[in-house]
Amino acid sequence: xxxxxxxxxxxxxxxxxxxxxxxxxxxxxxxxxxxxxxxxxxxxxxxxxxxxxxxxxxxxxxxxxxxxxxxxxxxxxxxxxxxxxxxxxxxxxxxxxxxxxxxxxxxxxxxxxxxxxxxxxxxxxxxxxxxxxxxxxxxxxxxxxxxxxxxxx
Length: 153
Known about the structure:
The chain has 153 residues and is α+β, with helices and mostly antiparallel strands.
């Protein structure tokens, strides 16, 4: 049961407990926390992140999509690639997972990972910052890690 990602609940609780000990955080009841979240009633086939995302009002971005596209660098995570595609913006961490970015207006977006495991556990807001029509940085949080990536020109 633990040697598969079909049980992310177990993995998440175990990894979180190990990280707490390693980083010197107070121990938390990760199993109890995840169990209480998982016991919330939810419509069949609707992930929690999808419901939360649906509650946030969608709005068009204030700049053309090409203004956000480019390569951003972050010292811990490495390159963050934002692409303008015909269906909207995508974000890719290095050569890893890809997420679609749903605009919420005011240069704010929500990560919608294409991989269901990532989508369920790592949805997050993304904020682009800059001046005028020039975007310089993007801010987001992946798990507990806040990151600011700087655009490479």
